[in-house]
Known about the structure:
The termini are far apart. The chain folds into two domains: 5-72; 75-217. It contains nine helices and no strands. It has helices spanning 5-26, 29-46, 52-107, 110-118, 120-147, 155-159, 161-178, 189-201, 203-217. It is mostly helical and 222 residues long.
Amino acid sequence: MTMSFDEVCANLDDLAKEASAIVERHSVQSVTSLVTEIEALRKLALGTSQDLVGAHYGYLKAKCKLDKMQQQAPKSERKFWLLLTFEGIMVVLLLSLWIFFSTLGETGHQAWKVFVIANQSVLLCAWWGALGSVLFAIYVLYEGRMRGIVQAVSDGWLVIKPITGALVGLLVWLCAEAGIAGVGQGQNTMFLGLLAFFAGWSERSFLTMLQQKMSKLGGFTP
C-alpha cells in the first residue's frame, strides 16, 4: 500500500494528539516517551530523504503500543488503587499499634507493662522496619503509576512488605545485640528505630551492607 506524504503526517498527528490526551489525563511517563517517538517519526517523514515507508511502519508500531497501553490502563488503575488502599490500611494499623503499645506501657496490666518495657527495643525496631517497607511500597506504586508500569509490579511482593520490613527490623535489633554493622547495645533506642526504618525502606541495600560487614568479620564468604 502506497501512503502519501499528507496521509502519513495526518496519521502521526492524530496519534500524537491521542497520546497527548492520555498524558494530560493520567500523566503517564511511558506515554510521554511515545509522544517523543511519534515526533521523531514525523521528522523522519519531513526530512530531506522523506522516508515515508519507515515513518508509516513506525506509526503502525507506535499505534500498537498505544492501543496496548489503553487496554491495560483500566486494569492498572484498579490494581493501583487496590494495592494503595491495602498499604494505606497497613499504615493506619501500624499507627494504631504504636498508640496501643504506648498506652499499654502506661496504663495496661502490670504483666503487659513489664513485657512492653522489657522488649521495647525489639518492638520498636520491628515497627519502624514495617513502616519503612510500607512507605516504600507506596512510593513504588506511585512511581509505577507515573511510568505506566504498575502491571509489572509484583502484587505478592507489595502485600508481604509489612512482614519483610518487620523481619528486617528485627535483624537490625539482632545486629545491635551482636554489635554488628557499627551498631552496639548501648545505642539509643530511637537511633535503632530509624536504622530499622531505612533498612525496611531498602531491604536489599541493608542486607548487602550486612553481608559485606559479615564478610569482613569472617562470618561468611558471599
